[in-house]
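Forum > Structural Biology > Help requests

Title: Can anyone predict the 3D structure of Serine aminopeptidase S33 domain-containing protein?

Hi all, first post here. I have the sequence for Serine aminopeptidase S33 domain-containing protein but no way to get a structure on my laptop. I'd be grateful if someone could post the structure tokens.
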Amino acid sequence: MTRIFNPADPHATPMVNGVPYRIVRRVLGGVPCLLELPPEGGPVRAVCLVFHGAWAAKEGKLGVYSMLAAQGVAVVIPDAPLHGEREADTPAGLNAREYVWESVRRSVAEVPALLQALDDTFGVLPLWVTGSSMGGYVTLALLQSQSRVQRAAALITSGVWHEPQVRTPELHAFLDQYRPLTNAGACSPTPLLLASGEVDPAFPLDRHHVPTADAMRRAYAAAGAPTHFQEAVFPGVGHYTSQRMRDLTVRFLLAE
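Reply #1:
Sure, ran it for you. Structure tokens for Serine aminopeptidase S33 domain-containing protein below:
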């Protein structure tokens, strides 16, 4: 069907700061995703993967980083394994912490196929990554494992990865391979933002942000790139991505 729109009163579309963007659903590399894209025909200059937290789904991140789409960035929000449309894939017998880490492990393992599908769609473009809470775990692991990542922002998360409730050897091996606190050198010198809430009950600052930031600061200094690591703590913010945290993340990702 051909649709004709009145140029004086066109079709209502998602907007950010007066700039339209598109929302589409795709299955990329077997992963159900929501994409926020520039207007039809607009150039895409970078891809930003956005990873949600535990017991959430991709729909919860719609609109959070849409200002990137208005700047020519393809914002790609996957459903994490065992979440959203993929909840039925959850293995039996996992405790809560194993559920989180099995999702993280599978997320990291499937990113190469996801990136190939994105390359096939948009061409090979600069890659940025951000994630909150569990998505921050994924972000920190991808910073180590995917050399294509050019900027990363890990929000309301931790690099300590001390998980006594995790029992399976496969998950222990994953934790040991990618634990940021002991593998911070594998993150540097790719630009990294670590941002936390001051009163986050899930990740108290002294036990999570502080040691993670200390390890990263030392690693980035040793790599000769101390300014490539940035950290921020947001007063009064708990375990959520606040507006100011979001705005800082957008500025960080868009920085040259």
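The chain has one domain: 15-254. The beta strands are 15-16, 19-20, 22-28, 31-37, 46-51, 73-78, 127-132, 149-155, 192-197, 229-234.
Shout if anything looks off.
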